[in-house]
Write a structure and sequence with these properties.
five-stranded mixed β-sheet, homodimer, alpha+beta, 19 strands, EC 6.1.1.21 (chains A, B), Anticodon-bd (chains A, B), Rossmann fold, BirA Bifunctional Protein, domain 2
């Protein structure tokens, strides 16, 4: 068999990187649970018609079929695709299980998703997302929109990564403002403003004229709104200074003030009201979130979401929600690429028990059992080679301790192979310093 | 939108069941790490030719393609399939990364796999496996085969499930024995013997005559071998009593004796030598493992594997390995189906902080922050409804405590809503009993 090669867009971490990823996922999960979000996992596949409801993303969907589909089979499998996010499956899950769920329903979901996009740095075809959402029946209180940044702030700041800033806006501000200045197509307007970072204000003004029928004055007002950014409620004054009035605009301002103030009370500097944040053409109807990682801004948001009122409804009942999603693979890919995250060893093992000769393997196994009962990750040496070679086995993997079972009644000894210190020890009593017990990520 | 319905073979647990699954996966992972296995995750897709190397399983593979594949695109995506186990991807990963890995390489891998089989109880199209493997370069010491049952025994016995028995056999025993009695097609013989549980000894004898050219005496000898079962090394005497001699048979007996004795020293009763265990037509060349869950034997093995010498090789270098895989979804599906596993609440939340009125939400948020800093999973009440209604919110989810922030300088109070006991408490100092902190699984 010839040597296999990687598949573009489908990243695979080394075991050491996977240890870092698990550390990151454990911390994120712990924070989500600390806020009372219940875990959920949905199947990897959805009916294709569900996946295509959003329209725009259809080109990204992977369809699956059984290799040997029976000729007379129903369309069942043919119409399944891999999910491209966790929000669409969650909305489907809520509708399917509404009778069994308690509302408001708070859930987190950490899973892989797949998109057939062109791979590039920070963009993958298979990647992990970590989502939280709160969904209620009929109405969802706006204070849930203020809670999202607290959770995400705590989750991301529990990680050994650069500082993050969560940028928030509110769709009602944009739509109310556009309506207030007489523009009738808020979606086209948003779509144009969303390109600000990519094409600059002059071209956005042209686009506004072209696609949203904006006059030069209207385009100028839209751009002025998008330029507003403040770390506190003062953004509201800046909006009011533009002299536009509209009830939806005022509703949006009040909601965004609450989000910014709640975040500031929790952790100053975490949130910034940034009125250019639009989140494309998505299904958002209230607060929207994006997140910048300091030093990696050019790769875009690492954590995004917003409020959606119309994603799930059955008959007269609707399930408005708010959610946010951490792009875990993007985050790790960027930091791994920059050599920014490391782990103190490439295996979980803290102690390698040496084997004097194969006849003594049982004695070494007994030592290992005693160490494991103390919660110390332990391997028994795979060979009874010279001790120097067994020590090198540990060294190459970063295992900090080698244990030598005592021969013929002599005491056991344990050697810290970093310092060379070797001391007598009793398996079942000895434990390593806390910092050595599990690999350190930093 | 009409109510969505489940897709057969793609199970989805409730949040409470998912908490149980996470508990189970955490315990399994902790045991794997305690034995020094490093984590690995491979992409969900493999080139189709890799997946079809085993031949027999080709009908089960799911192929993926991009919905809007460009007409002129290369075959890239067309020839990808979802992996149906974690062993084939692991063998591929080892070949691809051999230069970067330290051998023997011990890894665990816990992921979903997909098979297009007909769904039935205990069989799914999407399910989670938890695998460990040890792979070395050129040769792999036999003592690694004796280590597998220790790890699996510890992992499964850390779970609140019925007792398990690991059945072990060794391919060398079968092949050596068949050769020793003059049968020349060991694969056909194994295939026939493997049907013993399904079709009984008389029909197996017919099949042996038909497909392996066995005489009545040879068929009888094969059946006599398959009937041997012992919890200790005495199986070897029973084999020898059949009067067959062959060097490969003796090698297999010695290896299986070591496996059984190592397991007995670690935990008596865990392992049984059972010479009918064949593991079908797979790639195994030494020890093979199956695992019975007491009371669920009719659903088959919940944890299987074996030694394989020829799964991965590149040029003159081969990578023999031994591995075993826990069928986590099958295990959980059976126990959930029997109502055997439960969790003490349906959310991680330990404390619900009441909200007296919306103006006081900030004060309740502050209490929640102080509780979370103590590691206590906490939610703030979603509404400032009457306290009775807020208590019912907690009750319905099994949240054990409701916290009442004190009004106007009065002390806060916390109520255990199970007992009704309400006491004064200070957020940041109060902590719940350890048993209440996280949901209990049992």
């Amino acid at each position: 068999m010839s040597k296999p090669t990687p598949i573009s867009g489908f990243p695979e971490w080394t075991p050491a990187q996977r240890m870092i990823e698990q550390f990151v996922l454990d911390r994120i999960r712990a924070t989500f649970e600390l806020y009372g979000f219940a875990p959920l996992e949905t199947r990897a596949v959805e009916p294709l018609d569900q996946l295509l409801r959003k329209g725009e993303t259809s080109k990204e969907v992977y369809v699956i079929r059984r290799l040997h589909e029976e000729p007379g089979a129903t369309a069942g499998d043919d119409s399944l695709g891999l999910h491209f996010d966790l929000t669409v499956p969650f909305a489907r899950y809520v509708l399917e299980n509404a009778g069994k769920l308690q509302f408001p329903f708070r859930r987190y979901q950490i899973q892989k998703v797949w998109r057939g996009e062109r791979p590039q740095e920070g963009r993958y075809r298979e990647f992990v997302q970590a989502d939280i959402d709160i969904v209620d029946r009929d109405t969802l209180a706006a204070h849930h929109e203020a809670e999202m940044p607290l959770v995400i702030g705590d989750a991301l700041r529990s990680l050994p990564i650069p500082p993050v800033t969560i940028q928030v806006n509110n769709r009602k501000i944009c739509e109310g403002f556009y309506r207030g200045i007489g523009l009738t197509d808020p979606e086209a307007t948003l779509r144009a403003v969303d390109k600000l970072d990519k094409i600059g204000p002059a071209k956005v003004a042209d686009l506004l004229a072209e696609t949203a029928g904006a006059s030069p004055a209207q385009a100028k007002a839209c751009l002025a709104l998008a330029e507003i950014s403040a770390p506190d409620a003062s953004f509201a004054d800046a909006v009011h200074a533009l002299g536009v009035t509209d009830p939806l605009l005022e509703e949006g301002i009040a909601e965004l003030v609450a989000v910014v103030q709640t975040a500031a009370a929790h952790s100053p500097g975490l949130c910034v009201a940034d009125l250019r944040i639009a989140r494309g053409l998505d299904y958002y109807t209230g607060t929207v979130y994006e997140t910048q990682l300091a030093g990696y801004e050019r790769f875009g948001s690492i954590c995004s979401g917003g409020r959606y009122d119309n994603l799930a409804s059955a008959g007269a009942v609707s399930y408005p929600g708010v959610g946010i999603s951490i792009g875990v693979t993007r985050l790790l890919g960027l930091l791994f690429g920059a050599g920014e995250l490391s782990v103190s060893r490439s295996v979980p093992t803290c102690v390698l028990v040496a084997v004097a000769n194969e006849e003594q393997r049982t004695a070494s196994n007994r030592v290992a059992e005693a160490l494991r009962r103390q919660g110390v990750p332990t391997e028994v040496s795979p060979s009874a080679a010279k001790f120097g070679k067994q020590i090198r086995y540990a060294e190459r993997r970063g295992i900090p301790y080698v244990w030598f079972p005592g021969a013929e009644g002599a005491a056991d000894e344990v050697k810290d192979i970093r310092s060379g210190t070797q001391v007598e020890a009793v398996a079942g009593q000895w434990t390593p310093p806390a910092a050595d017990r599990t690999p350190l990520v930093g």
